[in-house]
Amino acid sequence: MARPDEGKTEAERQLTLHVGLVCVVATAAAVVALYQLVHLDLTGGDLTRSIALAFTAALGVRINWRIRIRATVHAISWSETAIVLGLAVAPAPLVVLTTGTGVAIALLSMKPSPLKTAFGIAKSMLLAAGGGVALHTLGWSPQDTDLRHVIGMIGLAYVVAVVLDELLTLPVIAMATGTPLRRLFWDDLGLRLTSALARFLLIAVTLVILQADPRLLLAVPPLVLSLHLLYSNQVKSRTEQQAWQRLARTTDALNVVDLDKVLTTAVTQATELFSADEVEIELRDAGRTVRGASGTITYDGPAGTPSEIEGTVLPARLEGHDRTADVGMLRLRFRGPVRLNEREQYTLRTFASALCTAVRNAQAYAELARVADEHAHAASHDALTGLANRRQLLDRGTEQLDARHAEGVTALVLIDLNHFKEVNDTLGHAAGDQVLMQVADRLRAAARDEDLVARLGGDEFAVLMRALPAPAIAAHRAETLLGALHEPLDVDGMRISVEASGGIAAAPASGGMPELLRRADVAMYQAKRAGQRTATYAPTRDTADLRRLTLGGELPRAVADHEFTVNFQPLVDLGSGEVTGAEALARWHHPRHGVIDPLRFIEAVERSGMLPAFAEAILDQALVAAVTWRTAGFDLPVSVNVSPRSLLDARFPGAVLARLQAHDFPPDRLVLELTETLTLSQLDVVDRVLSRLRDSGIRLALDDFGTGYSSLSLLSRIPVHELKIDRSFVTAMESSAEAAAVIRSTLDLGRSLDLAVVAEGVESEPQRRALWSLGCAAGQGHLFARPLPAGALLAALQRGSGGRPGTLATPLHDTGSVIRLSTPGRRQPARNRSTGLPHLPA
Ligand code: C2E
Ligand code: CA
Ligand code: CA
């Protein structure tokens, strides 16, 4: 048998105690009243009046309005008005007993809980007794007929009753609902005071009527009713207004990107908003449930564990306005029976929808961060061996070379396996991979802790050494590294000996990592040609030293003499083969050295101070070409590469706009391709330059996407229109699952941010198909065309493929075998005001 006390909370016990006490005092009052009544001479009029009084008191209880706090509904009634009026017309002991009876009849017919009934009856009797004692103390007798005196006395009795009412009722509500007493007192104090005043006026008017002609009393009930309606309307509109304000505040507070914060805020705010005993949020996909009560989280864990609260559950689906996304459920729990009114139901739906949006935003944000991490890792590591990749080598090397007070010498050893192709061809790729992994292990073991071992691609490895006491030490260490490869490898029981050549170079005075790599490369070929295991770079034997090209005022002359020209490589719709744009790629026609690739001179141009003139020359040629194509009937957007350094130049946007105007070329047909660097993207001026370009309608593309550490951080600062998947991923996609995964996640990202995605370096038909089936719409690469002079591209466009001008490849759907997943649109993404990120569709 469970004891009746069991399961009761401390507050419940207190409540029972309080009500019990009130009842005891009320019973005592009733006994005293009964005793006095016996010694009173009651007239027939007294009796009639008390019956009328009991009836009025009962009516006063029935006409009430209700306020729900959690599962408890509180009815606020007119009974004390009736009681005080009674005191004016009948002896106090009689009033005590008759109100008690009237209220008891009313309450019993309404069937609230026993506790509430007892409290209601006891309270009404105590109010009557309190008022009566006050009148008695003041020496009042019902025979008093001076109206002003009567009103004054009764007014005082009313004040006593009101104060008593507050003193008795507020603690009960506080205990029943767990609301702080102080808050209950201040909430609606103004409203309660006005209401008390209005009731007093009603009392006064009734007293006047009683003296003039008691028959006029018939007018009192309509008066009460209209006062009641007026007051309850006022209460209602006031509560509604507060509820709206609270809803607005709550949904505002949900506007954060951290999922945990969203959930905590939602749970704690919703308990307040709906005055619920418990609020629960269940996220369907994550299988996670969060519960909270009175401002704290009580549960956060896997879904499925039952709540401890029994009673009413009001569920609301977490879905967007459009009802499409459905992320889970919101549940309000109450310890007793509760029904929400219409406004509360609407609030619940609105809240659920705001919560749904907040959850989805937070999830999308987390996804962005995850993709960023993934990219960062894939971007800096070689998938097969786990060694650093070329990018990482370049970055670490650059850091090392830039470090001002670095001790000692930095050197690089480039290691290339000889005859590796034969291993691959005769034993298969799997064996080839084994060889590469074992070579990687040996190099890692032979290198020092402070060295960085990297795989540059294929069978090429590199070891970056730092803080060497002298350049000559590098040669010695290189011998150790290559010596580690001397012992034959064991691949599936076969012993395979690999031979390798090493090229050593010490840090150059200028030129940075690209130059260091180039020198090590030169040295390695010397070693191979000479049949030696290693060779060290010697400037005297380097015939193609780029330095000489860029020194001695060559660049200004090159700009002045228009030695820089532009070739164009078309962007092609992978499905239809249609040309959808062209990228301008710079070339240097050197009078003695012939055509030089941009990667060999861009760095020099950037450092030379000639960058603005160079960039303008390239842009000019790109625009001239685009205008020519347009005149010939091919309206193609043209893409131009932008040096990170140009973005540091506040005059750059102005210069671009001036060129556009000079050629009367629409800004939205120009695409600027950006490669980002971490440090650059942190500068305010870069943000300003990019915003200005963007705001003037120019489209922005993120070049070499996937290789940069900060691709996503840049993306979150300046929304671009287009992503270009780096060529290295396209090249590797057929053999490397990781490369394919990067492509897929880039396409996902493009889809969710509504960006166009272009794949670079498409060299084969299988690559084109694979990209297309992943949902990539556009590509660029040797499969379609190499970079061509403007006129040659125009001729190719006019010729077309298979007699279709404007195309460079046969459509894919002709084969009927490839189904395209989806078409990334080219719409401009709207931005989320609070996060600065584009809005993420579900
Ligand atoms: P990018 O912007 O990534 O340009 C694509 C490069 O890939 C071009 O090299 C292009 O010729 C090459 N390419 C295109 N399709 C294929 C393919 O299927 N296979 C292979 N293996 N390569 C392909 P390019 O012209 O040597 O340009 C190299 C880089 O120099 C460009 O990379 C770009 O970052 C930079 N660059 C070119 N022109 C300019 C310029 O005007 N200004 C600036 N700041 N940089 C430029
Ligand atoms: Ca580019
Ligand atoms: Ca690129």
UniProtKB/TrEMBL annotation:
Name this protein carries in UniProt: Diguanylate cyclase (GGDEF) domain-containing protein
Cross-referenced NCBIfam families: GGDEF (TIGR00254)
Annotated ranges, domain EAL: 548-801
Keyword entries, A-Z: Membrane, Transmembrane, Transmembrane helix
Alphabetical list of InterPro entries matching this protein: Cyclic-di-GMP_PDE-like, EAL_dom, EAL_sf, GGDEF_dom, Nucleotide_cyclase, Rev_trsase/Diguanyl_cyclase
UniProt keyword Transmembrane helix present: yes
Region span, Disordered: 804-842
Residue intervals passing through the bilayer: 15-35, 47-65, 85-108, 120-138, 150-177
Gene Ontology MF: a single term: cyclic-guanylate-specific phosphodiesterase activity
Stretches assigned to the GGDEF domain: 408-540
SMART domains in the record: EAL (SM00052), GGDEF (SM00267)
